Amino acid sequence: MFRSGLSKLTSVTSKVNKVGCVRNFSASVNIDVGQEAFETHNFAKPSTTVSTNKEELVRFLTEMYTMRRMEITNDTEYKARNIRGFCHLYDGQEAVASGMNFSLDKEDSWITSYRCHCVALLRGSTVQQVFEEMFGYVGGTAKGKGGSMHFYSKKANFFGGQGIVGAQVPVGAGLAFYNKYVSKPGEKMNMTVAGYGDGAANQGQIWEAANMAKLWGLPVALYIENNHYGMGTSTKRSSCNDHYYTMGGRTIPGIKIDGMNVLAVKQGVAAVREWCSSGNGPIYMEFDTYRYHGHSMSDPGTTYRTREEVGSVRQSRDPIEYVKNLLMDNKLCTEAEIKDIEKKVRDDVQQALVRAKAGNFPPPENLYSNVYATIDLKDEPQKMIRMPDFTKSIRQI
Questions:
Q1: What 8-state DSSP symbol labels residue 19?
Q2: In angstroms, rounded to a whole number, what is the distance separating the alpha carbons of residues 143 and 132?
Q3: Per-residue pLDDT tens for 156-173?
Q4: In this predicted structure, what is the pLDDT of residue 322?
Q5: In angstroms, what is the C-alpha Rg of the chain?
Q6: How many domains does the chain have?
Q7: Cβ–Cβ contacts within 10 Å for residue 351, how many?
Q8: Which of 18, 145, 183, 214 lies in disulfide reach of 189, CB 3.0 to 4.6 Å?
């Protein structure tokens, strides 16, 4: 299982031991996630009984609550104009990233859409690095060059957020081609997960990538985070088939997973990874999820859905509340212990923000780095970048 480089999350989990919440890691509990957790298409349905333990549940709680607080902070900083440009938040969908990350191997490749802050966090970035990247500071995950939509970490096999809707899926097929190409005969392959939203599900490039993936038997899961609205249009109005996990027809299997239940995600993705890495080719994964913010900061998210609808999901399906209830209902943690975890996370996120705000913009010479590479893939800084010749332009300066 992939263990992220999140120093903050590791710190929180280790300190939880001192308040007595995680004492006996060996004691496991079996949780029934419900028959509605999985729907399948030409694919064996995973067991709805999921084994877990206190350590794992505290990890999920800590990860997801950190994501939630980080995104709420990004919202505040954007409204204060400390973050500029585009900003696409992930709050509500935390169980998808957290459960999937748990069941992937660290060598598996991951590429997703421009809603990528939380995936970057799970794949090795710190909260401070995420904030600095959002501010455009040199200490950010992409050294301040990427911003909200372009986090990236080759070291963690995270190939980024993609700024063009759906364009990450063909790249994901290419990553899967590489994973198959370098695999050793008789051994399981590393796989690729390539994510996109329901708003991109009917794009031609996705159908073409799926076709090539099947023809070549590529180990790739095309996963759809279906929050039911895309950029504000209901899937019922935008898709003739909104059962996205069935889009492979007769040739590519699919699975639909309750994306608000981290244990269902963990279980479903484990089954998908076994399928892909064993050489069975591609699969569609659809996560039934819900986002509390609108599409972007310019979208209040209330013109095409009601506040009552959003509040109802928060009450009945919130992924963080689900894990908190599991911990308390199974007498693994008390309410006071959970509050200690949440307080520690809030403090850590706030401290990360303070440190991030002390950062600096990249120096001007960084404009010329990471543009060209030598034949042995080392950066070859340029002395200059050709700029427009405004004397030959209708725009006179």
A1: G
A2: 8
A3: 999 999 889 999 999 999
A4: 97
A5: 21
A6: 1
A7: 13
A8: 183
Whole-model pTM: value is 0.88
Name residue, tokens 């308040």: 19
User: Which residue, chain included where needed, has tokens 């059962």?
Assistant: 243
| AA letter at 333 | C
389 part of a folded domain: no
Is residue 383 a part of any domain in this protein?
no
The answer to whether the beta carbons of residues 265 and 99 sit under 8 Å apart is yes
Task: For residue 178, give its domain range.
Answer: 7-364
Helices and strands (H and E) in the chain: how many: 12, 9
In a domain, 39, yes or no: yes
Question: Residue 203 pLDDT more than 70?
Answer: yes
Beta-ladder partners of 193: 110, 221
Which CATH number does the domain housing residue 334 bear?
3.40.50.970
pLDDT, greater one: 2 or 144: 144
Residue 261 lies in a domain: yes
Both tokens of 107, joined, read: 């060598």
| H/E stretch holding 256 | strand 254-258
Please report, for residues 121, 196, 260, 270, the alpha-carbon distance to residue 101 in angstroms, rounded to integers and kept in the order given: 11, 16, 15, 10
Residue 364: alpha-carbon gap to chain centroid: 31
